[in-house]
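Re: that backbone. Tokens:
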């Protein structure tokens, strides 16, 4: 932890993604990783033939959540950029699947994590990527000034 603080003060890194609101974001993504993965593993192994598209999309959501969680925990500018792209992709997924479930409900005989924009999860699947994008933009390192060492 002291190493991360030293890096922030010595370099131009932004806020640590593993402290304050960043820690809450990591925790929420971790919880959603476990929840979506558990749900999809159960559904894929016991009821795949009932709603294969919905269950595969829940598994995709779990993978996206896991990827973002690992990126946030890893820290650093490269991981921040990767998490930023992954959050944007997650938001596109939530909006696409959410709209699809409203336009063609028959394509989803059972709900996914992202169905109806995350209605079954109190819209957290829609709120998380927006919050993640905002936090990751805020956590961007300050630009370096040319005259400074």
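Recovered sequence:
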């Amino acid at each position: 932890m002291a190493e991360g603080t030293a890096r922030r003060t010595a370099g131009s890194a932004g806020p640590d993604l593993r402290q304050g609101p960043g820690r809450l974001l990591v925790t929420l993504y971790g919880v959603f990783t476990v929840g979506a993965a558990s749900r999809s593993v159960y559904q894929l192994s016991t009821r795949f033939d009932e709603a294969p598209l919905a269950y595969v999309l829940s598994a995709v959501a779990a993978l996206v959540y896991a990827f973002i969680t690992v990126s946030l925990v890893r820290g650093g500018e490269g991981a921040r950029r990767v998490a930023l792209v992954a959050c944007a992709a997650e938001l596109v997924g939530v909006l696409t699947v959410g709209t699809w479930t409203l336009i063609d409900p028959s394509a989803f005989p059972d709900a996914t994590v992202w169905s109806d924009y995350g209605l079954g999860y109190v819209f957290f699947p829609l709120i998380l990527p927006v919050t993640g994008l905002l936090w990751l933009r805020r956590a961007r390192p300050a630009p370096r000034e040319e005259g400074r060492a």
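The two ends are 24 Å apart (CA to CA). Helices lie at 2-10, 21-46, 52-74, 77-103, 124-138.
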